[in-house]
Design goal:
It is built from 9 helices and 12 strands. The protein is α/β, with parallel strands linked by helices and about 300 residues long. The protein has 2 domains: about 1-110 and about 280-295, Nucleotidyltransferase, domain 5 (2-Layer Sandwich); about 120-275, ATPase, nucleotide binding domain (Nucleotidyltransferase, domain 5, 2-Layer Sandwich). The strands form 3 sheets. It has a 5-stranded mixed sheet with strand order 3-2-1-4-7. A 5-stranded mixed sheet has the order 10-9-8-11-12. A two-stranded antiparallel ribbon has the order 5-6. Strand 9 and strand 10 form a beta hairpin. Helix 3 packs across helix 9 (about 285-290) and helix 6 crosses helix 7. The longest helix has 25 residues, at about 210-235. The chain starts with a strand and ends in an 8-residue tail after the last helix.
Amino acid sequence: MRIGIDLGGTKIEGVVLDRSGNELLRKRVDTRQAEGYSAILQTLRQLVRDLEAEAGTRCPVGIGTPGAISAVTGKMKNSNTVCLNDQPLLEDLQNILERPLRIANDANCFALSEALDGTGKGYGVVFGVIMGTGVGGGIVFNGQLHPGRQHIGGEWGHNILEWNGPDCYCGQKGCVETLISGPGLAADYHRHGGNRAFKANDIVTLAAQGDALAEAAMQRFFDRFGRALAMVINILDPDAIVLGGGLSNIDRLYSEGRNRVAHYVFNDQLITPILKNIHGDSSGVRGAAQLWRCDEI
């Protein structure tokens, strides 16, 4: 049995998977982010203890985190749970749990889960896409996660798509994340005169109802999606792309969005499958558990 932990900003979710990937247990607790780094560590320790008590055995643990472990310092970076940044999270957790751990970015965990037993199963090279509050991704080669030498493999959200675009928290302008995330879609709609109270889901609904301003925002969104994903395909040429995150529920991405990708990709036609995830919000926590292979346990 393997434990997977999804360390989110407001909640921490844990599951126990058996050898076949079946979920045996699931438990969710508050992250306690407001109480700081030490409180998060203690919450994680207690969650693992509780899961092991119910499972009746000690288990290997994999953890999906916002951000990543720096290949230079060994400390957390780029986490929107800001109290984790510049902390030796892996080292500290290995000490308090008294065992080796495996940690990966939450987008990487999503990609791994969908490649192993999700909609990407059976494909050799899978690029997993996260489009929600932010934009991220992960790469899986023949069932093995590819984090990259600098632990930034799959971070297509911080390629610059429009040099004069909106400011990004990373210090650049016009990153993919600023344009095709949920907040990015909403901000574009607002810049063109839309109601500032409306969020991405509202805009999608309005466009479906025939609202011209919302439809124009959706057309810009699809075009940007096409340009951004075509860059990934031109470089990686994966066997399949799996979409995740809240915006993956936009059905038009798989038709109109795909058509825009085909328009920009460097080929006479687009044969790459662009697929919707199977495991949904559970992909991250399942992928964290699957950082451990059964033959390694």
